[in-house]
From TrEMBL, chain B:
<feature type="transmembrane region" description="Helical">
    <location>
        <begin position="200"/>
        <end position="222"/>
    </location>
</feature>
<comment type="similarity">
    <text>Belongs to the CcmC/CycZ/HelC family.</text>
</comment>
<keyword id="KW-1003">Cell membrane</keyword>
<feature type="transmembrane region" description="Helical">
    <location>
        <begin position="128"/>
        <end position="148"/>
    </location>
</feature>
<dbReference type="GO" id="GO:0015232">
    <property type="term" value="F:heme transmembrane transporter activity"/>
</dbReference>
<keyword id="KW-0812">Transmembrane</keyword>
<keyword id="KW-0472">Membrane</keyword>
<dbReference type="InterPro" id="IPR045062">
    <property type="entry name" value="Cyt_c_biogenesis_CcsA/CcmC"/>
</dbReference>
<feature type="domain" description="Cytochrome c assembly protein">
    <location>
        <begin position="7"/>
        <end position="184"/>
    </location>
</feature>
From TrEMBL, chain C:
<keyword id="KW-1003">Cell membrane</keyword>
<feature type="transmembrane region" description="Helical">
    <location>
        <begin position="125"/>
        <end position="150"/>
    </location>
</feature>
<keyword id="KW-0813">Transport</keyword>
<feature type="transmembrane region" description="Helical">
    <location>
        <begin position="12"/>
        <end position="37"/>
    </location>
</feature>
<dbReference type="InterPro" id="IPR003544">
    <property type="entry name" value="Cyt_c_biogenesis_CcmB"/>
</dbReference>
<dbReference type="GO" id="GO:0017004">
    <property type="term" value="P:cytochrome complex assembly"/>
</dbReference>
<dbReference type="Pfam" id="PF03379">
    <property type="entry name" value="CcmB"/>
</dbReference>
<feature type="transmembrane region" description="Helical">
    <location>
        <begin position="157"/>
        <end position="178"/>
    </location>
</feature>
<keyword id="KW-0997">Cell inner membrane</keyword>
Amino acid sequence: MRGAMECMVQDLSVARGGVPLLQGVGFSLVPGEALVLRAPNGAGKTTLLRCLAGLQPPLSGQVNLPEEGVAYASHADGIKTQLSVRENLRFWASVHGVADIGEALERFDLVGLQTRLAGHLSAGQKRRLGLARLLVTGRPLWLLDEPTVSLDTSAVALFGDVVRSHLAGGGMAIIATHIDLGLPEARVLELGAFKARADTMDTFDEAFL
Amino acid sequence: MASIWEYANPRKFIATANRLLPWVGGLACVALLVGLIWGFFLTPDDYRQGSTVKIIYLHVPSALMAINGWFMMLVASLIWLVRRHHVSALAARAAAPVGAVMTLIALITGAIWGQPMWGTWWAWDPRLTSFLILFLFYLGYIALWAAIEDDDTAADLTSILCIVGSVFAVLSRYAVDFWNQGLHQGASLSMDRADHVANVFYFPLLVCMSGFVLLFVALVLLRTQTEIRARRMRALLARERMA
Amino acid sequence: MNALLIRDLRLAVRAGGGFGLGLSFFLILVALIPFGVGPETELLARIAPGILWVGALLSCLLSLDRIFALDYEDGSLDLLATAPLPLEAVVAVKALVHWLTTGVPLTLAAPVLGVLLNLPWPGHLWLMASLALGTPALSMIGAFGAALTVGLKRGGLLLSLLVLPLYVPTLIFGAEVARRGAAGMALETPLLVLAGVSLATLALLPFAAAAVLRVNLR
């Protein structure tokens, strides 16, 4: 059981638009652990997360994640502006076969807003709604891409609490972020060390060079 | 014996194509010259159609290559999807404009021939209509290649379009047959009923057809080389951006 | 799947969903035809089945680029691709929603517009039958085209170029059913072939469209 829940990434290389960005990325994660990815802009954080989410094939390397266990949160929240907060959340809950959205609304302080149209929310409120979606996926591994963008300090603290209780419940998280989330126990992975060298092109598309 | 997949290496492909091109191109020129001169000047006029029948030496070979060009693209697309050889995808891309031009030649010569024979430049005859539809498929395919920046994405998408398009093209052919029974004099023109055409017409036609096949191969080889070099240039630019 | 169906239907009928645009376009198109070809009722009656079919097809085309583009822009498509729902099912539901919001209203409106064009009587029934059988295929083929062009800026024109040739068989058999119906001729063959084309399209194209979407999302 425990084995199936682990995350193992070995010697992973990813590319965007045919240009290798990262190579030799490796880490492992057991339930209850979080990993913070740090790197300058354009280094390949988003590409790495999309690859882990299974949206994009890796150039090479191995990715072993829990089967159907990944919840991905990108820059875009996937919120429909013509639907209310509750309708948005209920949709994702039923797609993932989860019945209850009350807890998610409560944890992100959205109860008072639940009948409001998502189009009328502020940027920070939208972001909270986007993050609340994670709670209704019922999935153990969260892949978060700059989750705190446009959140104020209290909302960041709120989010930190949610992540912590997710970890306490045996969940895992991989977070690309620049700011301190108040998760001292999280390990930090500096992606700068894995920057792809120009000569990797030769093995990648060798014949074209 | 070397595997055929060795030619999937772009460098090897370019080298081989360089060796082949003069021969294929030269043979194409000879075959076309011989075939067309023989056909146009050294065959008698048809007793019914007069000298107009001689456009057959352009019409039939180009129509042949219009269809076979698409078929070649289909095979190359399948190879790309299954074996991920870049040269294959680029060859499909290279063949598309050539095939489209062949289709256009077939359509235009068909119209020119139709004028004296049917008394109209254009009739919605099933065969002409099918070629018009085929031309539209070529246009869509070329436009999709042109619209997508990433080479591998474009190769994947156009390959799937080519496969789906092939199914619908065949379906359209039957639909068009059903829709209009047509005036085309298929019997006197088709290969498998060669006995309907007198040998005097048939042999130069064969030479012309082989000339068009060779011309098609030569053009596709040349254009594939160009596409490979263009792709190499993009890869180099990408590498420069990285460094 | 039901959740996605309900959400998309809700989005379609809410403000800015574009519901009814296709229908209005159909009406305008049909109203313009007599201005172009002249008011003789005999001529109009003769070309009515074809005009109505081509009009329905073009109206269908109008809303195709919305099938995936909106979900692509706001990130929902990424999230749907990582959800437990297979992408093939997502495509099928999206095509179904497009049909419910476009094909069904067009089918229901066509006989009414047939009156404007003096379509002879039993033709109305067969026009509706042929549209009911053919428009699902139009939506599914359109979803495939929309999946092909989803990542492109201003992909709308390209979408039409890709989709219209694929519409040819459906149009030919559909319009043939309507024409023969209006003329009171036997129409079993085109009707059966039309149904066959639609069923095969619905069965196979979701896989092609899902494959194309996966390529476009990476």
